[in-house]
């Protein structure tokens, strides 16, 4: 099997780090304990490993194709999508009242990781449908919910996000697509949207486009953007399909990776106007789109974890099989499998530590989201929502940036074979490269982290997390053991660095915005590095307590946490130095535009 | 123009950092001063920019093709190669007695950078020919030199390196290709070689393969390997071409990048044996091949600098043109070119600092090579040869690894457009990925750095370099200026980190080989980071002295050195921490093969 979901690792994170037991105690999740999680994960692993993973290479070699406005998915994809729909996989985390399974996000999260690890291109289609469902559930009218959501949850229809235009990428203030009211409550849309993932395809009966556009006389900038439902086929009141809407795919892109996933240019209104239905109120579109974007950003973070894990699995398999050179310590006279060479071990340990750390942080974030949505206690809901929102840009930015390094190391472990496309390691390297770009580049995530997530509350949520790290540090220091002392030392240094930077951001943002924003991506990187390292330390504490139950498994947890602490965390201090000095003349980037 | 060679920057490095004046004083280089350098660089820049750069995309879209054993180069390549030959570009650094131009390596080096920046795939063909020339000049008989070298220098023929076999990659001890003596002084070769760059093509009249093989009863391992000349067409005594030799290209690879460069599988002796001529003595093949490899390794390091610079140029052009979002400091009411946004500036500054630092280190290494080969003083020759040899694995490993980051940032600066192949940024990301793999992976370079270059002399050469850094530090500290204080502080911390690691390597290699070799790539990274940072600091000192002559140019040199010091050098301490702690239980990688 080309992908075996790491179920045991995932369940460890669910149970020991993300506190599955608390989630299962929330109202509505009474049946969602660790046994349910295990059953769901095993079934998901089987489907992803057997059905989707083998199609991954196929889709890379035979990208989706465009002809006369129609897009045909890669061979096997439509059939696999039918199996996905039949399995009810789209509905895992969505409410039962709209025919979803109503499971916690914490259980859906490993399923989504598996989906993406097995086939990033395929998984993008449900990923965007999830976003559309969340946006409709939050901002749609009751009629809109009844008409669209059950069909999206079943997988009969799929959803898309239409934001980007040629002149409006990161800057949505520049959106120009027009929406003209028709007097009957509907609108007609005119414009061009680009980079629309799964914007056209033949895997589902309808495509529900959620589209940002401007109504006549709307204010300039982001405060004049509204959100519309523009279905590919109009939907009759009884839910049956009506006529073809005036939205057409005029081309798809030729991309570096995720080639099976069609990236569409959509033309709205070339034949009289695309019929659109306003979601919520006019001029509040961006607000609603942010619901969808936050869901999608978290999921893209999982894509980073997923492709990193797949690359890791492949590299380990190769390293165990490829025989080359004698050991440097003279322990064998013959060439050995390269997994015994120190630098290969270093690369694999690095891949593993980065992947496990990012996974743990993402799953913990999912648990905060569950509490935020389901706790009976209003204050707890608000607190956990704030933590979740702080973590989303970090999960997105950190997990995707680290996936670039991990997939690159995956190629390196394969040596010359890694550069040959047939080997397959290169596909992960190509596929991963979009992750720090779409759904908001890392810089956009970092702006969000600085602006909405740190400055707005004066660093309160960040300081709350730092206090939690202190509790972990106290537990680490209770161990009289060199390994735990090393973990504590480096985690503490990382914690201090993060604290220093949060303080810097809060104090300097107004006086010195250019310095703070030049340090925003390094701040995000620092936060990802330290918060993931914290999760690894927590894992080590649990593993130590349980070590006699399964020495190989828990021993590996401790060793990976230790590697993370000693080999990755020391860079936290360097990041702090570089960020904080940005506010001084000698730390600033003293190059004019013309000097570049 | 898609590539404009940075002539002014290159001349700055030649003159101010690599001490062109000293090189021009060496016997035989009397005409090779800065004026000659400038004239050669300008002519090279014209040829590379006008002829080779436009073919780069063309070669990516239309890779070289194989049919019935024949390989056709990408469209336009054969004609461009004729122009390359007519321009005498193959001969720049080779001796006049074999019809080369006899210029210093220091002048050839920027020319080779330009060649690679304009077209990495194309440049690989001359790169390997250079290696074949060096090997023949050092180890070939006078007859062999007369027969092959002038035709290789003119570019009439090209050269290849045949090392790798399916079971023998990094581990050449496993080479199996057989060479059977025929009694007439010739041999017949039988075997399969893979990953042979430009191993077959239609751009030149003959291809001179240098091939590693075993003679009957040769000792096992690397001490039983001999080196042979196996020309594609046998060569008559008068230099005319004879019959086709029994070496055939059975396929070429489908690769992630450098697609125009054919990577051949060569079959030797399927039709009775490929005629080969022994170079030097039997069983000394690896020694001779190392001559070729060292030349090629240095040149691959330049490839890293080259592709990084090309990616930087493209990213800067896009950032100046793409308008998106208002400035964070409120300095404009409208969206501005993205080069004005702090994070874009950070990415571009990082790309620039990494590229300039690696370039300076490589050029300085080239100057050491010139002194090593041309000084009248035997002791100077030996000293500079030792420094050059210490620097080669660093130039190779560091420049190529940093090119991965720089080309990745190049994609990121382009946002979504970076992921679309037509944009062109993705090609550099794909092309660069081979650089840390071929001609010895980064781990192989790091083993060389630890074993032959640090342990063998007890760290003496490294300590000599550290003393030179001290001299630079003294000069920096003479400036009463915050910028220079910052550069001094971070360079000094980096210098201490490097000193600590050299000491660690020397003391621990015997007692704790696994720890030292697990830290070997980080040691190489640390050496590259600090030694390049040292060159940047030297550049800042010169720029400060000359600042009134050209404020924009010298100001940018100081700003780039400062960025390097504040944003890159602080990671030196983290690398030291991780390397040095590897020797303790809590720093080791405590995972068994089965635990990965």
Automatic annotation (TrEMBL), chains A, B:
Keywords: FAD, Flavoprotein, Oxidoreductase. It holds the Pfam family Acyl-CoA_dh_C. Its cofactor is FAD. GO terms for molecular function: flavin adenine dinucleotide binding; oxidoreductase activity, acting on the CH-CH group of donors. Its EC number is 1.3.99.41. Residues 161-270 form the Acyl-CoA oxidase/dehydrogenase middle domain. Belongs to the acyl-CoA dehydrogenase family. InterPro entries: Acyl-CoA_dh-like_C_dom, Acyl-CoA_Oxase/DH_mid-dom, Acyl-CoA_Oxase/DH_mid-dom_sf, AcylCo_DH-like_C, AcylCo_DH/oxidase_C, AcylCoA_DH/ox_N, AcylCoA_DH/ox_N_sf, AcylCoA_DH/oxidase_NM_dom_sf. Residues 283-449 form the Acyl-CoA dehydrogenase/oxidase C-terminal domain. Coiled coil: none annotated. It catalyses: 3-(methylsulfanyl)propanoyl-CoA + oxidized [electron-transfer flavoprotein] + H(+) = 3-(methylsulfanyl)acryloyl-CoA + reduced [electron-transfer flavoprotein]. Residues 466-584 form the Acetyl-CoA dehydrogenase-like C-terminal domain. This is 3-methylmercaptopropionyl-CoA dehydrogenase. It comes from the Bacteria. Residues 37-156 form the Acyl-CoA dehydrogenase/oxidase N-terminal domain. Involved in the assimilation of dimethylsulphoniopropionate (DMSP), an important compound in the fixation of carbon in marine phytoplankton, by mediating the conversion of 3-(methylthio)propanoyl-CoA (MMPA-CoA) to 3-(methylthio)acryloyl-CoA (MTA-CoA).
